[in-house]
Specification:
This protein is α+β, with helices and mostly antiparallel strands. It has one domain. Helices cover about 40% and strands about 20% of the residues. Strands 1-2-3-4 form a four-stranded antiparallel β-sheet. A four-stranded mixed β-sheet has the order 7-6-5-8. A hairpin with a 2-residue loop joins β3 and β4. α1 packs across α5 and α7 packs across α8. The chain is globular, with a radius of gyration of 17 Å.
Amino acid sequence: MKIDLLGRGGRWMRESIDAAPAPTLPWANPWKCTLAGILIRRPGSPLLETGPLSMLDRFGALHLDGAHVGFDGEPHEWDKVTAVRLRTAIELLTNDALEREVDRIRYLLPPIPGRKKLMMYLAEHLTLVLFTALDQSEDVLHRAIVAEVQYRGPVPGIKRTAQPGLFAAALLSLRPDINQALIGEVERRGLPVNPADA
């Protein structure tokens, strides 16, 4: 019998991520899946009191449609994308990644009423996202997911990269259909998909 290490919160998070609508063809523009969009549906969520949720896209989001692709409030035009790189989920789902996300929340969250409560709520649920994603088989955690989008910057000849934050990486790991939709669009456009290192 499997021990339920995550408890009710982990089951809620997994069920909510599993229930998130996937991108479909033809593309519905714009498509995105965000941590805020999931947490707003949780009973008693303080996000109900924060006003516009678009500001929270920077704390956990995947943007994917026929016009743009990107992470955490920074979608990039497909015409500027040059390649994607894969890595295994276990490489991205780390305590260091969680600490970086919590630091980013502290830096980016504006001074709104209830800021401390909101910071604690987001940090708690980012931790839950990490544990939920890690509560998978070893085979799944070593499956390759999109870990980097390479694109042309405003300066000619200079390439830039965008990487998923913790929520986007967890989403791609927990939802292989979304990961495959992203890879499929890259391949459809004839762009390179660079494999994960052995």
